Amino acid sequence: MLRDPGLALDYAIFAIVDDKRSMYLGTTIGCRRLEDPNVGDLPVTKAREVLAEAHEALDSSWTDHDDDVARFDAFRALDDDAKGAWNAYSVAMSLQAKPTYDQRQNPMQNRLGQLLEIDVAAWWRPTSANFFDGIQKGGLLQLLHDLGGPTLSSRYAAAKKPDISSNCEKLCAGEAIVEEDVRERALTWVPNAMLFLEPAVATADPLDSLSDDDLGDDEEPGAEEPGADELGDDALLDGDREANPDDELESEFSEGEGAGDPLVNDHLAAA
After folding, report:
1. pLDDT, tens digit, for every residue of 6-62?
2. Which residues of the chain are modeled with pLDDT < 70?
3. Calpha distance 251→255 (Å, rounded)
4. Which positions ≥6 away from 149 have C-beta within 8 Å?
5. Are 206 and 142 in contact (CB under 8 A)?
6. Do residues 209 and 135 lie in contact, with contact meaning Cβ atoms separated by under 8 Å?
7. What are the domain boundaries of the chain?
8. Which of 17, 95, 13, 89 minimizes the C-alpha distance to 57?
9. Phi, psi (degrees; rounded to nearest 5) at 122
10. With contact defined as beta carbons under 8 Å apart, do 20 and 66 qualify?
């Protein structure tokens, strides 16, 4: 192999991408399949769709052979672009999902994301199911304050958390009736945990976890709030309310089903 780097590269890629591989290929080279944490029934992401399209576009003619050696010879006969596409796909599928939602970053994946110049907001948008339902009410109000100031956050101060979560989703999808500058900020907003940041920039996010002792007066499950029943989605988007200066804008991320996107590096894989 030392005398033929081209053959070594073909063999390495083949050993990684061969789905029919037996235990007798004679190498420890291999690749685990796409890591997919069990997080419940979440919609397919845009990145997953792109990965599926990329797989469909691969030249898979060599996979028709049942014999390992015949498959290898057929793979070697592919042109360099076709073999390179298989290599890129296998690397994309090998990426590990981020273990938790918090401010911790993976420096190597961050560097890859920077080199690929990934626009995270174009790949992933926060929804109630994949993000906002896992954030405490105070954290959602803080986000609204950051995006639109006290005028926006005060509209939701008396609302129930599910209503606020739903309207945060609309805001970040560009479906809320707000000022143009607020809309632009909301359309590009993603939490720090989803960004490929330099170590010096990867500071704590306002939505990162707080201990239970720090939660302030967040609503209890099923608790009613004054005036909340009278607020529909449209009223929440269009109406104005007096800000409550005593509201503590504290947040906690709940670790559980639907709390954050499980495949936070899907967009790195698909880029």
Report:
1. 999 999 999 999 877 656 778 888 766 666 555 566 677 888 899 999 999 999 999
2. 21-23, 31-42, 98-103, 199-271
3. 13
4. none
5. yes
6. no
7. 5-94, 100-263
8. 89
9. -75, -20
10. yes
Q: Which three-class secondary structure state does DSSP give residue 121?
A: helix
Residue among 25, 19, 231, 258 at smallest CA distance from 129: 258
pLDDT attached to residue 200 = 57
Q: Is the pTM of the predicted complex or chain greater than 0.85?
A: no
**Cα–Cα distance measured from residue 211 to residue 112, given in angstroms and rounded to the nearest whole number:** 32
Facing residues of 99 across strands? none
Phi, psi (degrees; rounded to nearest 5) at 135: -110, 140
Q: Among the residues of the chain, which ranges form H helices? A: 5-17, 46-57, 68-76, 80-94, 107-115, 120-123, 137-155, 161-172, 180-188, 233-238, 266-270
Which residues lie closer than 8 Å to 54 by C-beta, 6 or more apart? 85, 89, 92, 270
Q: Which of 194, 18, 25 is nearest to 89 (CA)?
A: 18
